[in-house]
Specification:
Layout (H helix, E strand, L loop, with lengths): L5 H26 L2 H8 L3 H5 L5 H15 L11 H17 L3 H12 L4 H27 L9 H21 L4 H17 L6
Helix pairs in contact: 1-2, 1-4, 1-6, 4-6, 4-7, 5-7, 5-8, 5-9, 7-8, 8-9
């Protein structure tokens, strides 16, 4: 039998992680089994165990892969810091709603991990990444005079995170058509960020 190349092994790992995204998204961490992942990947359980010791290792590799590969937010040149922040908020909301690897993995991280300490650490790492990006935009807004220099950036950051999650809930769970969904999301983000220009 021919030996597997590194490329073959990577292809099999990707096949397993692609399948795991759908299994964990559908069943959550506790109910999912290695047999479910093997079946979804159309591989034997032995083939899956040949790459991962158990479902925790699969879940961690799945999350780390998507977080590393997710397309970074690209700001449009010429926009002010607050206008860029609005675009970032919409980018995040789309990431949570539109079907994709990042959507499935984030849903799993926030809904399906059942407080597994190792997976919680990955969620916290994702949160720190979000907070750092928003903070960078807020600091730019202060330097550009769009926000008062004395604004409490920690509180404003929490406000932005709360706004993203609130708009997501309205748009995702509301009875809206696809076109209405994104029009409403833009309006709500615009309205929410206008508050930041008012006196603190």
């Amino acid at each position: 039998m021919a030996r597997k190349t590194k490329e073959d092994a990577q292809k099999t790992r990707d096949q397993i992680l692609d399948a795991a995204e759908h299994v964990f998204y559908r069943k959550g961490f506790t109910l999912a089994t290695m047999a479910d992942i093997a079946e979804a990947a159309q591989l034997s359980r032995g083939a899956v165990y040949g790459h991962y010791k158990g479902k925790l290792e699969v879940a961690m590799a799945m999350v780390e892969r998507v977080i590393q590969q997710v397309s970074p937010f690209q700001s449009q040149p010429g926009l002010t810091a607050l206008a860029t922040l609005k675009q970032y908020c919409l980018f995040e909301i789309r990431s949570y709603i539109e079907p994709s690897s990042i959507q499935r993995v984030l849903f799993f991280l926030y809904v399906g991990i059942d407080d597994s300490p190792e997976l919680l650490q990955l969620r916290f790492a994702w949160e720190k990444k979000r907070i750092a990006h928003i903070d960078q935009l807020l600091q730019q807004a202060m330097c550009q005079g769009e926000l008062p220099a004395e604004a409490d950036s920690t509180l404003v950051n929490l406000y932005c995170l709360s706004m993203i999650e609130g708009v997501f809930s309205v748009v995702y769970f509301g009875d809206l058509t696809t076109s209405e969904r994104w029009q409403r999301a833009e309006q709500l983000c615009e309205y929410g960020l206008q508050r930041l220009s008012m006196p603190f």
